[in-house]
Request: fold
Amino acid sequence: MNAGTNPSAAPSGPQERLPTLNWRFEFGSYAKTRHFLDQMADLSKREDYYPNVSFGKTYVNISIDAEGQVVLAERKSSFMGEMEALVTADRA
Amino acid sequence: MNAGTNPSAAPSGPQERLPTLNWRFEFGSYAKTRHFLDQMADLSKREDYYPNVSFGKTYVNISIDAEGQVVLAERKSSFMGEMEALVTADRA
Reply:
């Protein structure tokens, strides 16, 4: 297998890229999972930012890559904090 | 799509596991992506089957692992066909 070159060649250096941030949230039921996903969809629309999301019946994984982190920082977006607050609220 | 293996055959050896089936659907906008996800959620509820789903702003990936394929086959579920029909309908 050829390791291949980086197709999206970062302008600076690959070492300087921020690592992707990942969250994993677990829920007690599909209803709770879906409720969280609906709230996340509203948050994405409000902040105009769409992270990569993967989910199954009782879990949701969210990934925000380096590019996303830069975009959110530049906008001073509270996306990450609001996302975590949603989970806390759902569990209260 | 599935080449004539019997998915409800007794689980004899790990070599005989069905490969995970993966779909990737692309959409022209986040609104279309979300519409599809909402319809998928309804389908999952109706069929009581929850595949692994990952999505971003304009794409959705669906994975159905060996276990899921066996469950759907045993129930004679039309989950996969209905899922594909949703995408076709969305694009019409």
Notes: The CA atoms of residues 29 and 58 of chain B lie 6 Å apart. Confidence is low (pLDDT under 50) at residues 1-9 of chain B.
